[in-house]
């Protein structure tokens, strides 16, 4: 008898007594119906608004549709052909997205880890410090981006005032093609580093303290303890943060929209000077709701989906071998 | 004691300026919202708030904040309530009911978690257009009425409930639904609060989707109202800052009250907006 189960259960559960299979089967059917009735509301929403669209998007990408005509036209792979061979702006958006991901992901992870390590102690005021760095992630992106627009002001924005104090030349920030995307990167790093800190703090809290203590007794300094104990033990968390940061950054839309959107938000005039802040996600958005090309936007969605999958697969393949699981 | 000072000192030395830098834009929002147009973009900048409280009265008269606020609160509350209901029911069924093909369906639900939202943007717009739901509340509520995160969290909680509880209830002639409503769900307050805070914040901050599916002020949430205000060429930056503050403060309060829950929920699920 299983000692972990209380004795009384054997008297109440009737499963011990052999029963005719037909009745048991009928009971399972009845309970299953109940179970499906319980799950139905959630399942209907998830299937209609997430699962079904995930398949539909592939079909949609083979069509041409302005969202107004009654029926879409089937045009085969023409959307993909145009996307890959004749759309210079899309190619530009792909490179700029890679640039955005390549800069923001490593910096926000490094900064997030640094702050987590610093906060991982019995520090008076720790919660306050953590809140300060985490708040940018929780606050509405429209409001925070508006404030950053003021700080990026080309004449007397706060950031230019700071540069001036240090004797550095002013920057045009959002107003020049060379600086518009780096400015948005700065905003994005500000937005997500604290989020990474919170995940790293959770990871650090799960590490066994004995190892660090043993290394301390053996005379290892803080730097050595970090590189030979904490960092290898933390790799599963780092791996997790890297994965979700990369996926999240590839899809960046909202800050681009608020910083460069132009009147009405969904217009093709956005994307910054010379379209230097156009990303795949933003291009998808303007194609769908600025130019009303549902099929073309569908093809962009599929490509974005595949890029994210490929990068995830690559990271899983490369990093799995280096991740140290406890 | 000395080791403690040596250990904590450098931590503060780096962490306090960093935290101040991260919090600074919020302070700056307050400063600008209490300033006047001719004092915002000057050098050297005025780094302290000036106290022009009338800006808030002015911004309130220019933009229908009351309407936006009501819309946001209504949409966020309705979405949260529905998520709690659907997650509790489904989480309970996945944890405690005998169902044919249960593990298959649960696996499917977890699989749905990996679909990026960008993929669903255009198809969902078409679905809502077909339903005639463009520019309605339900367009902002129904697509978000179920949550994989919520179902998962509730299932994990219900799995931890002792089986005797259910068996005792059964002896009293209690069915699954009554047991769930009177016994199990009231015990599930911790995960329910986590889910509620999480989805309330998510819904409050929703921007891209409502921008796409709303066309009039009558159902628009505050985030979209704020962008419309921002794109208006003649908008006074001071009023824009005041508006941003108005849209941020309620969330800041929720954040400070429910910080632990929010941080816990995010640390376990890794949801990124």
What does this entry show, briefly?
The complex is a heterodimer of chains A (326) and B (273). By secondary structure, chain A is an all-alpha fold.
Written description of the protein model:
The complex is a heterodimer of chains A (326) and B (273). By secondary structure, chain A is mainly α. Chain A has two domains: 41 residues; 243 residues, MetI-like (MetI-like fold, Orthogonal Bundle). Helix content of chain A is 70%, strand content 1%. Chain A is built from 13 helices and two strands, in the order ααββααααααααααα. A two-stranded antiparallel ribbon of chain A has the order 1-2. In chain A, β1 and β2 form a beta hairpin. In chain A, α6 crosses α11, α10 packs antiparallel against α13 and α12 runs antiparallel to α13. The radius of gyration of chain A is 27 Å and the shape is globular. The N terminus of chain A is likely disordered. By secondary structure, chain B is mostly helical. The longest helix of chain B is centred in the last third of the chain and has 33 residues. Helices cover 74% and strands 0% of the residues of chain B. The two termini of chain B are 43 Å apart. Chain B folds into two domains: 52 residues, no CATH class; 217 residues, MetI-like fold (Orthogonal Bundle). In chain B, α12 packs antiparallel against α13.
Give a topology summary.
The complex is a heterodimer of chains A (326) and B (273).
Chain A: H1 8-12, H2 21-60, E1 63-64, E2 73-74, H3 78-86, H4 88-119, H5 126-138, H6 141-151, H7 158-165, H8 177-205, H9 209-217, H10 222-250, H11 254-260, H12 280-289, H13 294-320
Antiparallel strand pairs in A: 1-2
Chain B: H1 2-33, H2 54-62, H3 65-96, H4 102-112, H5 117-131, H6 138-141, H7 148-159, H8 163-171, H9 176-187, H10 189-205, H11 208-213, H12 222-231, H13 237-269
């Amino acid at each position: 008898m299983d000692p972990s189960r209380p004795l009384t259960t054997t008297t109440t559960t009737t499963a011990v007594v052999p029963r005719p299979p037909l009745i048991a089967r009928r009971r399972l059917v009845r309970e299953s119906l109940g179970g499906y009735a319980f799950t139905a509301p959630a399942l209907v929403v998830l299937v209609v608004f997430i699962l079904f669209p995930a398949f539909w998007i592939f079909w949609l990408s083979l069509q041409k549709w302005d969202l107004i005509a009654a029926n879409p036209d089937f045009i085969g792979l023409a959307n993909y052909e145009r996307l890959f061979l004749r759309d210079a702006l899309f190619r530009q958006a792909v490179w700029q997205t890679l640039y955005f991901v390549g800069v923001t992901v490593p910096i926000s992870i490094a900064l997030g880890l640094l702050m987590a390590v610093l906060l991982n102690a019995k520090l008076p005021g720790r919660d306050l410090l953590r809140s300060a760095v985490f708040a940018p992630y929780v606050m509405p992106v429209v409001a925070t981006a508006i404030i950053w627009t003021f700080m990026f002001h080309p004449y007397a924005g706060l950031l230019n005032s700071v540069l001036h104090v240090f004797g550095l030349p002013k920057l045009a920030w959002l107003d020049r093609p060379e600086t518009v995307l780096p400015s948005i990167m700065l905003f994005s790093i500000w937005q997500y580093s604290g989020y990474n800190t919170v995940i790293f703090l959770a990871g650090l809290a799960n590490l066994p303290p004995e190892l660090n203590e043993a290394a301390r007794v053996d005379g290892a300094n803080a730097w050595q303890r970090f590189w030979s104990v904490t960092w290898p033990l933390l790799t599963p968390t780092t791996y997790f943060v890297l994965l979700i940061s990369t996926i999240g950054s590839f899809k960046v839309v909202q800050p681009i929209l608020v910083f460069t959107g132009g009147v009405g938000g969904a217009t093709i005039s956005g994307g910054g000077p010379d379209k230097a802040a156009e990303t795949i996600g933003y291009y998808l958005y303007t194609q769908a709701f600025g130019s009303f090309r549902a099929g073309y936007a569908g093809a962009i969605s599929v490509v974005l989906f595949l890029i994210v999958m490929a990068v995830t697969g690559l990271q899983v393949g490369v990093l799995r071998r280096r991740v140290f699981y406890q | 004691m000395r080791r403690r000072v040596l250990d904590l000192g450098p931590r503060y030395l780096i962490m306090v300026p960093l935290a101040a830098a991260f919090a600074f834009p919020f302070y700056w929002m307050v400063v600008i919202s209490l300033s006047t147009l001719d004092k915002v973009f000057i050098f050297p900048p005025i780094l302290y708030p000036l106290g022009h409280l009338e800006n808030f009265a002015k911004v309130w008269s220019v933009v229908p904040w009351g309407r936006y606020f009501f819309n946001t609160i209504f949409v966020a509350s309705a979405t949260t309530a529905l998520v709690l209901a659907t997650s509790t029911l489904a989480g309970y069924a996945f944890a405690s009911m005998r169902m044919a093909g249960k593990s298959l369906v649960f696996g499917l639900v977890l699989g749905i978690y990996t679909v990026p939202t960008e993929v669903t943007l255009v198809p969902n717009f078409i679905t809502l257009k077909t339903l005639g739901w463009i520019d309605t509340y339900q367009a902002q509520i129904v697509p978000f009425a179920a949550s994989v995160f919520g179902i998962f969290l509730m299932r994990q909680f219900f799995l931890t409930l002792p089986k005797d509880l259910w068996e005792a209830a059964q002896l009293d002639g209690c069915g699954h639904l009554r047991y769930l409503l009177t016994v199990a769900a009231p015990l599930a307050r911790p995960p329910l609060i986590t889910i509620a805070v999480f989805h309330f914040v998510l819904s409050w901050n929703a921007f891209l989707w409502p921008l796409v599916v709303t066309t009039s002020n009558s159902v628009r949430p505050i985030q979209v109202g704020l962008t419309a205000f921002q794109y208006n060429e003649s908008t006074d930056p001071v009023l824009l800052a005041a508006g941003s503050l108005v849209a941020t403060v309620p969330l800041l309060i929720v954040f400070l009250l429910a910080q632990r829950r929010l941080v816990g929920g995010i640390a376990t699920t890794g949801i990124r907006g």
